[in-house]
Design brief:
Elements lengths: L9 E2 L13 H12 L9 E8 L20 H7 L4 E4 L2 E5 L2 E6 L5 E6 L13 H9 L6 H7 E8 L2 E6 L6 H8 L8 H14 L7 E7 L3 E6 L10 E8 L3 H9 L5 E2 L4 H8 L5 E14 L13 H10 L2 H8 L5 E2 L12 E2 L7 H10 L6 E9 L3 H14 L1 E8 L1 H9 L6 E6 L5 H8 L12 H12 L3 H17 L3 E13 L3 E3 L18 E2 L3
Parallel strand pairs: 2-11, 2-12, 16-17, 16-18
Antiparallel strand pairs: 1-15, 3-4, 5-6, 6-8, 7-8, 9-10, 10-11, 12-19, 13-18, 13-19, 14-19, 20-21
Helix pairs in contact: 9-11, 15-16
């Protein structure tokens, strides 16, 4: 069977067809004005919609200041909070709390004009001071990158905010408006009044739904905010009920105890297909998953040898796992970058070749395999981890599965607490550069080490205003990640969900690449 390195990667534009450059800013802003204009208010919100959520919710996800380079917090942010610009149906960046925005010709100044009708849930208007405060208190992924590049934030009046950059940066709006939570706005006066802990306990935002209550490990309850600028939500009350067990989520959906069940896989997903009144909603999203080798920079570790990392890649039966767990809907990939992202480089297709994997292990000094230690993973994807651990055992790489509940797993991942093997993933918005920043480049939230030549290229592309030249640099970086087996990519996940009979518009698939339901104000129940 041929080597996975055969055939150099070729260029493939992002499937959304949009590369946001400084010349595109005004055009996109105009689109935002058209699509983001306040709609005619509809009838008062009615009814209740209940989700069966696959993970335990955490208060850290109620605060946009703490977004960590994954998509999970946005499940809550899209309900409680709002951003100056954000991904919305039909647009990778839609004008939201900002009714318009523009960039100077030299790409050093970005100015946002706020909507006068935008309000926080306590009735206070959204002002430029709130925008500035939210940026300055931001502490999540890409924090240093954003703050090192912004020279000043000016607030000439309550409705305008101006960002002055130290040097041209074509990705400013992408990082600020989609890849991080820096552009999601919180009320300055309220946060200063209640403090950081108080805000997490009772968050106030400017989104379509107000926080009502949170019971850890049980549920999050929210109610419609009838003054939301875009439209009055249709559904009055949203309940996110925590049900970590997949079979229990499906049972709740079948009994009508929940209306939407996240992440139903394998035979359970087939059961949804065969149950009258239930609808299976599979979608290949911008979420890629992978096996990471955090010890590859340790010369004493077996993972320092590229042949061992490549053997791991060859040992993974992605096709079999895909068919068993996501009914063949996931997209097999050799990259940690989603193929819908701008500046994506198409790598050679992954190869399943356990014989070649054993040969590489023998060449690396492990003819009888080796004890690989712990294999850490998010417990909601432990069935994926179990399948891969079994694949690795077949070629002599003996690992022990260590599933950890998501909030704890991500905390350990970001704090560089794990060794041996990590099953990671991200469905965060952005482009190839934002994904590389978080997971490959020096200082990235989830990067355990770095390669100086890749770091140099990252700095080079960040300053490049010519889109074609920038694309070439980002393609080169992705090729280096592939050639060095820094990661063993698994797939671009098909997030499979179930929807009950009361739901008219679930919101799945409305926001391109987004795994969850949204926008929440667009979700509707059937009459009666």
């Amino acid at each position: 069977m041929g080597s996975p390195r055969e055939n150099a990667g070729r260029s493939a534009p992002g499937r959304n067809g949009i590369v946001v450059t400084r010349r595109d800013v005004l055009a996109i802003a105009a689109l935002g004005l058209a699509a983001g204009a306040p709609a005619v208010a509809r009838a008062a919100p009615q009814g209740q919609l209940i989700w069966g959520v696959h993970i335990s919710l955490a208060p850290i996800w109620f605060d946009p200041a703490d977004t960590s380079g994954i998509i999970t917090p946005f499940m809550v942010l899209y309900a409680i909070h709002d951003a100056l610009v954000k991904p919305m149906p039909g647009q990778p960046l839609a004008a939201s709390l900002a009714e318009s925005w523009s960039a100077s010709e030299d790409a050093l100044t970005y100015e946002f004009a706020l909507r006068k009708e935008a309000r926080f849930h306590n009735g206070d208007p959204v002002t430029a001071e709130d925008v500035k405060f939210s940026f300055e208190r931001y502490r999540g992924t890409a924090r240093d990158l954003l703050k090192d590049r912004v020279a000043a934030i000016e607030t000439p009046d309550a409705q305008h905010v101006r960002f002055q950059l130290k040097e041209p940066w074509p990705d400013f709006v992408t990082f600020y408006g989609s890849a991080t939570g820096a552009g999601w706005v919180v009320p300055k006066r309220y946060v200063e009044k209640v403090g950081e802990d108080g805000f997490k306990k009772a968050p106030i935002g400017a989104g379509p739904y107000k926080f009502v209550s949170f019971t850890p490990g049980v549920e999050l309850v929210m109610e419609a905010f009838d003054q939301y600028w875009r439209k009055t939500p249709s559904v009055k009350r949203l309940v996110f009920k925590v049900i970590p067990d997949e079979a229990t989520r499906l049972a709740a959906l079948k009994r009508g105890e929940v209306d939407i069940a996240y992440s139903i896989r394998g035979e359970l997903a087939e059961e949804i297909q065969n149950t009258p009144g239930l609808t299976l909603k599979p979608a290949v999203v911008q979420g890629t998953q992978w096996v990471y080798f955090p010890d590859q920079w340790d010369a004493k570790s077996p993972w320092h040898d590229e042949r061992v990392r490549l053997a791991t890649n060859l040992a993974m039966d992605r096709k079999g796992i895909n068919e068993a767990l996501t009914l063949g809907h996931s997209r097999i990939t050799g990259s940690i970058i989603p193929d819908i992202f701008d500046f994506y480089w198409q790598p050679p297709a992954p190869v399943f070749d356990p014989g070649k994997a054993r040969q590489l292990l023998a060449e690396a000094g492990h003819p009888n395999g080796f004890d690989a230690g712990d294999y850490y993973c998010d417990s909601s994807y432990s069935n994926v981890g179990e399948a891969i651990v079994n694949n690795l055992r077949e070629v002599g790489i003996r690992a022990k599965l260590r599933p950890i509940e998501r909030v704890g797993f991500l905390k350990g991942y970001a704090e560089k607490a794990y060794k041996n093997l990590i099953q990671g993933g991200s469905g965060a918005f952005g482009n190839a550069a934002t994904r590389i920043e978080a997971f490959v480049a020096k200082g990235g939230t989830f990067a355990y080490g770095n390669y100086p030549d890749i770091d140099a290229l990252f700095l080079q592309q960040a300053k490049e205003l010519d889109s074609k030249r920038r694309e070439a640099i980002l393609h080169q970086m992705q090729q280096l990640v592939h050639e060095r087996s820094i990661y063993a990519p698994i797939w671009q996940l098909a997030f499979i969900n179930g929807v009950g009979p009361r739901v008219a518009e679930s919101g799945f698939g409305l926001i391109a690449g987004y795994p969850y339901t949204g926008p929440y104000e667009d979700i509707t129940l059937k009459p009666g």
